[in-house]
Amino acid sequence: MSVKNQFSFNAKNYENYSFIQKKVAENLINKTTSKPGSILDLGCGTGSLYNSINWPVDDFYAVDFSKEMLQIHARNKGVKCIVGDFNDSMLFDKLRQYKINRIFSSSSLQWAKNLDATFKHIKNLDAPISFAIFTANTFKTVFETAKIPPLLRTTEEVTSLANKYFNAHYETINYKLSFISTLDMFRYIKKSGVSGARNILDYKNMKDLIKNYPIDYLEFEVLFITE
Q1: Is the sign of the CA dihedral 138, 32, 116, 165 positive or negative?
Q2: Domain with 10 in it
Q3: How many domains, the chain?
Q4: What Cα–Cα distance (Å) separates residue 87 from each residue in 109, 115, 130, 156?
Q5: Which of 1-15, 143-157, 192-206: highest mean pLDDT?
Q6: 74 found inside a domain
Q7: pTM of the complete model
Q8: How many other CB atoms are found less than 10 A from the CB of residue 5?
């Protein structure tokens, strides 16, 4: 199943599992010292970032590749929901028609197929940026226990790419999310969308990991990039 189809399939359940994404969106908004009136949200999902904004916004352009996610997003005055994929250059051709004061992307850009190209397209929109990107130490103990490489880019890789296009401030924040059982933990991984469409392990190895996982929480590493 593709990343797009995975998010679309789990759209109705997403709000019940997106605990960390909501915290990340709130933190990203809290780091915004200005109060932009025209906002672009790339990979908006069901609207965690929009719901975290505490100032009036005239225009909010909510972009996501999942129609099912956008159906759940708020449809208040000034909100324009746009079906689009930040992996597609044609999206950015369309977005250039809008006047944008700040570009946000919270918990989404880790799924860019070519992050260098996506950063370049975003830079060409000529607006300051606020990004929160999950990085390689997300699910660190899962990967170490299973002896498999991480799914995501390292903070160093993302920072190096971002430095080519943005004069930004970088901060890495680590989160933990505790669970009553290991089975609940891995159900969360599947439903939350943090792992995208990528199956971490086959059935047998997943059973072994559930049995041997040494801690009662999951780790998340998020790189905040702000101009």
Answers
A1: negative
A2: 3-139+148-175+219-226
A3: 1
A4: 10, 8, 18, 21
A5: 143-157
A6: yes
A7: 0.89
A8: 13
